[in-house]
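Obj: model holo form, ligand = S-adenosylmethionine.
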Amino acid sequence: MSNVPNVRALAAETLYNVVDKGASLNQELPFASQGLPPKDKALLQQICYGVLRYLPSLENYCQHLVEEPLKGKRRIFQFLLYVGIYQLQHMRVPPHAAISETVNALQQLRALGLKGLINAILRSFQRQQLELEEKAKLIPVCLYNHPNWFIKQVKEAYPDSWEDLLAENQQQAPMWLRVNQAQYSTQEYSDMLTANDIEHTLNPDFIDGIKLAKPRDVFSLPEFDTGACSVQDAAAQLAARFLEPKDDDTILDACAAPGGKTCHILELADAEVLALDSDATRLERVKQNLTRIGLGADLQCGDASQPHTWWDEKQFDRILLDVPCSATGVIRRHPDIKWLRRASDIADLAALQGDILDSIWPLLKPGGTLVYATCSVLPQENQQQVAKFLANNNDVEHIPLHDKDTPTTPGLQLLPGESDGFYYAKLVKKI
Ligand SMILES: C[S@@+](CC[C@H](N)C(=O)[O-])C[C@H]1O[C@@H](n2cnc3c(N)ncnc32)[C@H](O)[C@@H]1O
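Output (holo C-alpha cells):
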C-alpha cells in the first residue's frame, strides 16, 4: 500500500468537516494538506473549492442517483460522491482515472465494502449526466449554486446585475499584489516582475496594485521576504488610500487582523498606528505581517464596541473601521461562506457593526476622518448602515467617493469582478 495519502479521501473529509460540522475551509485545508507534495496540495484545493462552488447541483444529482441517502457517519461517502462527480463534470481528469481514484479513496476511509456502490453511482452519473444537468437547472438554487436567501437578497439589491454577480462568485479570484510604496513605486516593481518573466497587468483604478496573470508561490516574487510586496485584493487596497494617512498622524485601525490594511497605512505614511482586534490569535498575524515589511504599530487586543476597556482617551486623527461582516463580497475566494452563513446572520452582523460605529465615533478628533469598510455586497451592512448613522448624528460630514455617493445612498459599492466585492464610506467629524 502506498504511503502517499489519497487526495480524494482528504477532500471528502475536509468537505464533511466544513459543510456538516461548520468548520472554515481556511482552517481545514492547511491541516488536510500537511505533508502533501505541491501538486497534490493544489489538487486538493481545486477539488474542495470546486465542490463548494457547485454543492447544490452535486446534491441534486445524488438525490436522483442514490436510492437511500447516506446518513450519520456514512455522510462522508456522500461527500466522496460529490468529489467524484465534480471531477467528471468540471475537471480535465480522464473519467476512468477520476472514478478509479475516487473508489481507491475508500481504502483510506476504511470502507472497502462500499467500492461497488460508489463505482456504480459514478458510472450512472456518466450515463445520465445530460439529463441530470437539465433537471437541476430548473431549480434556482442549483442553477445559480447559491443559497436561496442570498439569491433573494442580491436580486433585490441589484435588479439589473444580480445574475452577473452570482456568476462571478463561481469564478476563481485573481491574485493581486500591493506594492510597498515605502520601498518601490508600482512601476518599479512592475519592471522587476517583467525582468523575472512574471506576467502581470496594472490598473489605474488601483494605484498600488499589480494583477498577476496566474497565481504563484509568493516566495517566487522578487524581494517578497523583505516586504517589497504583499498579497492583497485590489479593492482592499483602497482602504488606506481613502483614509489618506499623513506623517505623524495618530491612527486607529479598529478591526485590524490579519493586518493587511495596517501594513498598507504604514507603507504610505510615517504614522503612529494602534492596531486593535478582539481576536488575540489573529492579532499575532498582524505582528508577523509587520515584521516581514519591517514596520511597526502598537497592537492591542480589545473589543471595538467597548473602548472604555482599552482606550487612553487620546482622540485619533484618522480611524479605519474594517468591521466584521458577512464576507459576501469574497465568495470567490471563500466558497464555504455560501454554506456557513445563514440569512439570520446578516441582521446580527448589522447590529454589531452599528454598535462598533457608534462606540468608535467619539474616539475621532474634530476634523478627523473615519473610513467605514466591509467586504460585503449586502446593503444592510453597507449603505443602509451608513445612511442610518448619518441620519442619527449631526456632527458627521459625509465625503462622496464618487458622483452618486449621497447621504441617502452613501458610499462606494464595488462588486466582484476585477476586484473583490467591497464597500467604503468616508466620514469626517465636523469641527
Ligand atoms: C474584516 S476583518 C479585518 C481585516 C483587516 N482589516 C485586514 O485588512 O487585514 C474583521 C476583524 O474584526 C475583528 N473583530 C470582530 N469583532 C470585533 C470587535 N468587537 N472588536 C474588535 N475587532 C473585532 C475580527 O477578529 C477580524 O479580525
